[in-house]
Amino acid sequence: MSRWSSSPVAVRVSTGSVCCVSPDGTVGAEVALLQPLDAPGTGAAVLGPALREAIGEANAEGGLAFELAAGLCRFEVVPWIEGVHSREERRTLARARFEAVYGGAARDWAVDLCDAGYGRGGLAVAVPAHLPMSIVRACLDIGAAATSVRPACSAGIDRLLRRAGTRRAWLVVPERDQSFVGAVDLGGWTAATCLHEDGRSFFRPLGDLLLRETLLAGGVATGMPVLIDVSPKPGGRRIAGDQPARPPLAALDAGGQRWALEWVGL
After folding, report:
1. Strands across the sheet with 17-21, in order?
2. Which of 133, 134, 166, 172 could form a disulfide with 43 if both were Cys (CB 3.0 to 4.6 A apart)?
3. Any residues with CB less than 8 A from the CB of 163 and at least 6 apart, and which?
4. What percent of the chain has pLDDT over 70?
5. d(CA 185, CA 1)
6. 98/148 Cα distance (integer angstroms)
7. Per-residue confidence at 237, pLDDT binned at 50, 70, 90?
8. Which residues touch 260 (CB under 8 Å, ≥6 apart)?
């Protein structure tokens, strides 16, 4: 692989592999991890060697920007509560939300929060507590610096938010095994979860998820359009299986409900 510039090199990390994407869009080969990254006790000793191999001859002087697959993340909506405005108070609410859903296992998770503005629900993301430190230590082991760590779906979410504007809409960012699915209304978040694929078609489990979330919301989400990010990967390449091929579908039906599909990034 050719030597790249000193701009940050993107590193995509999933539960079982890592790969690099250069600033010019060149996608490197995936390197398998010896142990799943979300397994207890997994850390820099597992990530470091794979990271070194994935970077190869890349010039990492500009640092490494890590993108975490949806399978390594948990997402929750943090509703707006009047009188709770500071970032620290809102993050405390986010932590409480994760603990309410996932129990004591969530107490030590690393949590971040992206608020949508006054009066609107924010989007919180949590990752295993050991993961950020494992990334930092793995970088130190290979003489590189981690410039950022964020969910891989972040860029797709930003594209879909711009398209949605103030509409009520579902936002879907497909990845290989799990995909981000969220709902927005007037720019604020009302739902956020991951779609776990089980070998069936992408659309059947998506329809099941939308139907379940619609029923849980008491039918409030009925008729909301579904915006799906299918922007090409850097350099026009995809990592195999990352995104479903675009089917000739304008709508998705499940359980007697119908959702209009909008393809973003074609």
Report:
1. 31-32, 17-21, 9-13, 64-68, 146-151
2. 134
3. 227, 262, 264
4. 85
5. 45
6. 23
7. very low
8. 225, 226, 250, 251
Q: Can you list the pairs that 86-92 forms with residues at least 24 positions away whose Cβ atoms lie under 8 Å?
A: 87/113, 87/115, 90/115, 90/122, 91/124
Residue showing tokens 């078609």: 201
Side chain identity, residue 198: D
Cα(191)–Cα(181) distance, rounded to whole angstroms?
8
- Report the predicted TM-score, pTM, of the whole model to 2 decimal places: 0.86
Cα–Cα distance for residue pair 225/260, rounded to 1 Å: 5
